[in-house]
Structures are given as structure tokens and as C-alpha cells.
Amino acid sequence: MEPKYKRILLKLSGEALAGDKKTGLDYEVINKFGQSIKKCADAGVEIGIVVGGGNFWRGRSSGAMDRTRADHIGMLATAMNALAVADGLEHLGLEVRVQTAISMPAVAEPYIRNKAMRHFQKGRVVIFGCGTGNPFFSTDTAAALRAAEIEADIFFKATMVDGVYDKDPHKFKDAVKYDKLTFNEILSKGLKVMDATAAALCQDNKVPILVFDLSRPDNIYDACMGKDIGTLVME
Ligand code: UDP
Q1: Which of 40, 110, 131, 136 could form a disulfide with 45 if both were Cys (CB 3.0 to 4.6 A apart)?
Q2: What DSSP line would sit under 147-161, residue for residue?
Q3: 168 falls within a domain
Q4: What's this model's pTM, rounded to 2 decimal places?
Q5: pLDDT above 80 for 62
Q6: How many angstroms does the Cα of residue 12 sit away from the middle of ligand 1?
Q7: Ligand 1 mean position, distance from CA 131 (Å)
Q8: Do the domain assignments include residue 174?
Q9: Ligand 1 in contact with 203 (CB < 6 A)?
């Protein structure tokens, strides 16, 4: 079977990488995501990954610390996750490159868009660390930005809920899941899919978003194959 998407940008939140522990890294979980990612690569899908950092640090919950400094620490946390995911994927036999938006040449390549494109051509997975490289942004915004830059067919926002609901499904039993939404509906209904900057970037650059659940890791592969999962947001 042919995959539905040729090039994807997958966003893995820091929380997802921590598994049940909620903080730090769960290598078993990373391995499971890796197996699904490998199936996508084997099917010929070009894969860019943006990792979050919430399992180590969140700028906004750093209390009295200066916001810019706290965000710098948050971006360094995403670099640690990028290296951990790279290691997991390499153990499964994938070729991987880490590129960071804040230069750390002893550790990873600097982010260079054309170089990333070349890696895709060669069948390598590219993991983008350090978010956008700027404070006051989120890794969702970094994922939307990279998705637009690499001309991804879709932005996979893999989370801990299986799509977008009209209200919080953890709090309300009668919450209803949407199968499809437009960007304007997200705004008009006040739905929380991602932060407004990230959503606006996707809307402006016509990058569709698929929100789906990572508690079943093979959803990454199913999403690539075009299976009907999660919530699709598009124009
Ligand atoms: N961050 C930042 N600029 C970016 C991306 C991330 O300053 O472009 C910082 C910010 O402090 C954020 C932290 O990195 O809280 C971790 O990212 P995020 O909270 O988006 O990770 P996730 O929730 O996906 O694990």
C-alpha cells in the first residue's frame, strides 16, 4: 500500500517521551514510537520531527526566572530530547540527523533548511531541536514553521488525546470529537488545538494538521497510510 503523505512533520511532545513517568525519558516508549516511524520510513515517507521539552522544563512554569532565560533552558531541553530520539531511531537501523536552531556544532548540525531537504532525499530522518531558536515561542510553533519550510504535506500533532473535542474529554463525559475542522472553526469555536501562533502559521501556509493519539504508538504509521484517525484540520 502507498503512503498517503510523501513528507511529514511529526511533533512529539516532551510529555509523550516521558511515558507514564511524566518527566525524563522512557526508552521503551521512545522505542515504540521509533518502530512506527521506521515503518513509515520503510514505506518511503520523508520524516522531519520536532520534539518538545516539557518532560524536562517549561519556560512558563519557571516562577521568578526571567522569561527569556527560562525559555533558553526550555530550548536546551528539546535538544536533549532530540538526541534521545535520534539514538532510539538509530538503534532501529534508521539514518538520522539532528539539526538545532541554536548552534551547538559539537553536538548536532545547525538548522539549515536546504541541508535538511538533502537529508530527506537520502532517506534520513531529520530531528529538529531547540524549537524556533527564539524565546516566547512554543515547539508547536517550531513544528508549524518547519513544516512550512520543508514543504511537508501535513503536520502530525501527536498528543495524549485522540483528536480535537468540543470540550475537555478528561473532564466531560459528553465531549464530542470532531473528525474534520477548518482553521476558522478552531478560532470561532475557541477550540484548543495548539497555540494561536502555530495555528496561524499552518493556516497561512496551507499546512493541514492531523491531531491524533500517541498512546497507541503505531498511530504514526496508520496516519501516514491515511487511516481515518484523529482530527484533520484544513482549509
Ligand atoms: N521554547 C522556546 N522557543 C521555542 C520552542 C520552545 O523558548 O521556539 C521553550 C519554552 O520555554 C517551552 C520549552 O522550550 O516551554 C519546551 O517546549 P514546549 O513547552 O513547547 O514543549 P512540549 O509541551 O511540546 O513538550
Answers
A1: 40
A2: HHHTT-SEEEEEESS
A3: no
A4: 0.96
A5: no
A6: 12
A7: 7
A8: no
A9: no
* CA–CA separation, 33 and 12 (whole Å): 9
Q: Which domain holds residue 83?
A: 7-155+193-205
- Say whether pLDDT at 127 is over 70: yes
What pLDDT shows up at residue 58? 80
Find the CATH number of the domain harbouring 138: 3.40.1160.10
Measured in Å, residue 57 CA sits from the centre of ligand 1 at: 8
Grid-cell match 476558522, residue found: 184
Question: What integer is the mean pLDDT of 20-45?
Answer: 97
Domain count, the chain: 1
pLDDT score recorded for residue 64: 82
Closest ligand 1 atom to Cα of 74: 14
Domain-embedded: residue 173: no
Q: Please count the other Cβ atoms lying within 10 Å of the Cβ belonging to residue 130.
A: 29
CB within 8 Å of 87: residues ≥ 6 apart = none
CB of residue 217 inside a 6 A radius of ligand 1 = no
Residue type, 18: A
Alpha carbon 165 to chain centroid, angstroms: 19
Task: Determine the residue of 68, 138, 145, 201 to mutate for testing ligand 1's pocket, defined as the one with the most ligand atoms within 8 A of the Cβ atom.
Answer: 138
> 109 C-alpha vs ligand 1 centroid, how far in Å?
20
150 pLDDT band, cuts 50/70/90, is very high
One-letter amino acid for residue 12 of the chain: L
Is 63 part of a structural domain of the chain?
A: yes
